Amino acid sequence: MFFLYICNENKKLNNMKKIITLLALSLLLLNSFDCKSQSIQSDEPLYPIRENGQYGYMNKNGEVVISPRYDRAGYFSEGLACVKIDGKLGFIDKSGNNVIEPQFDRCYDFNEGYALVFEKHKQLLIDKTGKTIYSIHGDKGDLCEFHEGYARVSTWHIWFGKVMYKYKYIDYSGRTVLKVKHSFAGYCFSDGLAVFFDITNELDHACCRIHGYKEGYIDKTGRMIIEPKFYFADDFKEGLALVQETYDGKYGFIGTTGEFVIEPQFDELTTGFYDGLARVVVNGKTSFIDKSGNYVIKNLEYENISVFKEGFSIVRAIHRGKAGFIDKTGSLVIEMQFDDADYFRDGLAKVMIGDKMAYIDTTGAIIWMEK
């Protein structure tokens, strides 16, 4: 009997060990699955939606993942989105948690880990914890967002009735890394260059071009790379910059050496390159060119033609005003049926149908629509 008792107890212990082992394996698998789900969720694009005047967020399938409870809601950028609660703006994560409490009057998206926000009369650059790395009083200067590690700071004061400007760039720590010797510095660096021009006497910046001052480009050390010879110079986009040599001259595109890659031949409303194409206007007709200057789409018969994003351009019907989308062949692939339309973001575009917000996919199918 004693021997049988021992055997039975051993069998029970072995069975218990098997059960414990199976439970442990199940927990490991479950944890692995949860981690994978959280990883996918953190990378998943979310889109602001509106229901009964309140804003929340949906996923790409049109499923509500953050219930509508905000007064306003922006798109997510670098994992955080600006939302309005009780008249103030703050930032949430993709789980709907308040990461930076609502306290601002205006906010911009996070870019390179920092966001430009406005609080009463102050402009601030904050990190993702809400810590301020640089601030300036709005009556005394102006801040810009970070681009390529540099953020521009402009300050001004009155001297004998004239406005005196100073410009510098700061790094992520708020430390000054470049003081601009020239009288004007462009908003941001792109392809390592920023626009500048000199003013030899103190004139309002709005009058500078009328008086013939030319624009050029400096690098991140403040060294002049492209001498000021343009009446208008835009930021570099995808390796090329839109410029105009004289007040009534045509627009063309230069490379980072300052030489023309695409000769001046275009009229106003020409843009820089987006998604590999630039919108150009000649004799009132809108077309798109590639970076070699070749026409890809020519003489479109639409109004309010946008630049390309994710392979689509927003167009409107002449006189009718409805919006639709064309592809890079110029074909109307989503009919003009919307009262308003935004760019595609991760495969979905926000549109307005009457006063209802909706999202469509790249085929034009409605994924979600406000009730």
Describe the structure.
- By secondary structure, the protein is mainly beta.
- The protein has a domain at 270-371: Lipocalin (Beta Barrel).
- It has 1 helix and 34 strands.
- It has one helix at residues 2-43, and strands at 47-51, 54-58, 64-70, 72-77, 80-85, 88-92, 98-104, 106-107, 115-119, 122-126, 132-137, 141-147, 150-159, 162-170, 176-179, 184-185, 194-197, 215-218, 224-230, 232-237, 240-244, 251-254, 260-266, 273-274, 277-282, 285-289, 295-300, 313-316, 323-326, 332-338, 340-345, 348-353, 356-360, 366-369.
- The strands form 9 sheets. Strands 4-5-6-7 form a 4-stranded antiparallel sheet, with no helix packed on it. The chain has a 4-stranded antiparallel sheet with strand order 8-9-10-11, with no helix packed on it.
- A hairpin with a 6-residue loop joins strand 28 and strand 29 (323-326).
- It is flat.
- The chain starts with a helix and ends with a strand.
